[in-house]
Structures are given as C-alpha cells and as structure tokens.
Amino acid sequence: MDALPPNALAARRVLLVVAGGIAAYKAPDVVRRLRDAGAEVQVVMTQAAAAFITPLTLQAVSGREVRSELFDAAAEAAMGHIELARWADLVLVAPATADFLARLRLGMANDLATAVCLATRAPLVVAPAMNQQMWQHPATQDNLAALAARGVRIAGPGAGSQACGEVGPGRMLEAHEICAAVHQQFATGLLAGVRVLLTAGPTREPIDPVRYISNHSSGKMGYTIAAALVDAGAHVTLVSGPTALAAPPGVTRIAVETALEMYDAVMTRLPTDIFIATAAVADYRVDQAAARKIKRQDATLALELTPNPDILKSVAATANPPFTVGFAAETNDVEHHAREKLLRKAIDMVAANLVGGAGLGFNADDNELLVIWRDGERLLARDDKPRIARALVALIAERYAARGVSSRN
Questions:
Q1: How far apart are CA 324 and CA 365, in angstroms?
Q2: Phi-psi bin for 106: left (phi > 0), alpha (psi -120 to 50), beta?
Q3: Catalytic residues
Q4: How far is 230 from 237, CA to CA, in rounded Å?
Q5: Last residue of a domain, one of 185, 203, 220
Q6: Per-residue pLDDT at 361
Q7: Residue 249 domain-assigned?
Q8: Number of folded domains in the chain?
C-alpha cells in the first residue's frame, strides 16, 4: 500500500472523528499512517463507534486520550469541544455514516463529534461508509450535495463487497487513500508553479581546520517555510547551511557551509520568482583561515575579519529582481531595525523576530513574526513554527500577487 513520505504532514493537527459503522475497524490504520507522515492525531468517537472498536485501541495508536463525551465535566470546564475545534488544522470523519452525514448537514451538535465539526474553522473531510442502497438513496445524495456546496470534501466511497453481503458503492476508502486525501487538502495552490529560492540555517566560517565562527540557527524556521511552500504548489530550491534537519519532501536542497558558498549557490540559481532569505549568514569571515590547527598559547590571539557578501541585497539589486523577502533576527528595537533593513536593502518584505530569550527564534519550536512591507504590516502572533510558516507563505503569496497586479497597471 502507498504511504505518504515521513514528513508529508509534519506538525499538522488532524482531529479524527470516528462514527458508528463497521468500517471503524480501519480507523487505527488511518491514525497510524497519519502519524507516520508526521501528523498529530486526536481521536473523537461517537457512542455508536465504541460498539465496533474500543477507545483504548485508538488511544494506543494515537498516543492521546480518546474523547467522546460532550458533557465531560473536566474538559468542558475549559470549553473542551471549542478547544478541540481550535486545535485542529483539519477535521476528518472516517467512517462517515449516513446518519452522521445527515446530522452534519443539519448543523446538529448533540454530541461531541458533531459539536466539534460545527465549531471548527478547519477544513472538513468526510470518508463515507454505508450500505450501497443507503449510499444511493436520494436523501443521502442530497445531504452530500449540500455538504459539498459548503466546502466539505467528500473522499470516496469505493465500491465492492460489503459487510452486509451486498456489492456496490458505499465501501469506505482504504487507509492510505484517506491519508492521501488529507494530504491533498493541505495543498493550497497559492503559489502553483512559482519558482522559489530559499536560504536556511547558519553558515560556518573557518578559523582553522577544526574551529569556525557560526551562530545558534537550527534551520527550523527555514525548513518549515520550505515545506509550506511545497504545500502551496511552489517549485522550491533550498540552499542550506549545516543543519541536522531532513529536507522536506518535494524540496531540492543544495548543501553549503560558508557564506561565500551560499552566495555562489544563490546567485548561480537566479533568476527566480521569489527569494526568501531565512538563513543566519555570518556577516564576517576570517580573512586568512589557518591551514593547520592553531595551538593554544598564553598570548592574546587576534583574528582579522572581513565582511561577507550581502546575499539578500545582491539578489534585490539584480537587473530583474525576484520578489525578495528578508528576515531580521533582533535582540532589541525589532520594528525599528526591520524597517531600516527593508529600506537599506531595497527588498519587498521583511519578517522580523525577537531572538535571545522568551523561547522564541533560534532553536525554539515557537516563533512570532512582525512582517513589514512598504505600505503595510502584519503581526503573526506566537505559534509553533509550522503554523507561523504557513501563515507567512500565505502572506507572501498575497503580496506577490499584489505586486504582479501593480506591475501590470
């Protein structure tokens, strides 16, 4: 069976609703495959689903306590169903029975499963599973048409032999097919066909064969942006300094070490449509790196440093520059320094963040960005880096399209 690549759903939050049908036996495999692709999975079960599969099974494969009660005193003290609805990046109903589809169409919220579906802003995917006659009944088809008109994605069903002994449409898709539908739902197409060149990670500037000058960048922000760009349909080339991260699926990675190597790798891959400079490039390199290891001495050691080329400024200064996005990692006066960088380097957009504390920026899992362009700004409030990356890519797509319209007028 086809499986998604290991990081295809990295940091995605999928809320799986399991309704009461015999196809619920496939739910553990769906959970396992989603998690293998990098997703976090929270399971919600209807009471009828527990007649077909135990909550303990789904808890074991998801690694999370299964939720089923709308009026759970402990959870609802914090409005648990609303928290679940906000948590999800996508809600998947598998199996989606005829009864559940009917209640979903009516907007009912008389149990936790339907309440979460009604309260979420996340995309909703349903995988129908029912007897072939129930599937073909006009009432079911009318319900499906109404749900599809609201933007609900209908995944399947397949056709074949059914538990009741009949043969026909209504069989729930296999787990790998459902996971593929989830993956496709995240493909926004906002930058379909657009060429994006992206830098990420630190650079290392040698002092001698065993020592170098570098910084605390882990590359996490740049790599999550690369993954979000692929989801948006872009053709992504990632020029990366040394990191311990795996290249996101669909990304062409060029490995470099020094700022000069990164400069050459970027400039030789122009022209491009969008250039995003997330790398923490060393501003200086040792003028003459020692050919042999420098031995410890009691005397003070002085290093002569020379400036590295400014990659972002160089790209923005080309004859036909791409839409250029820079990053400003600052320890103070974030907005002031970001606006100054925007003007000094003549770029289209700068994403500024505070580093050096508060669990943000370098090596952290969270970030917060103040994104500034010539006539506007937007704060991307603190969140995990994958969500920040997706919000930033959506904003870049918006401003890139606006610049294209402006240039044609």
A1: 25
A2: alpha
A3: 164
A4: 10
A5: 185
A6: 55
A7: yes
A8: 2
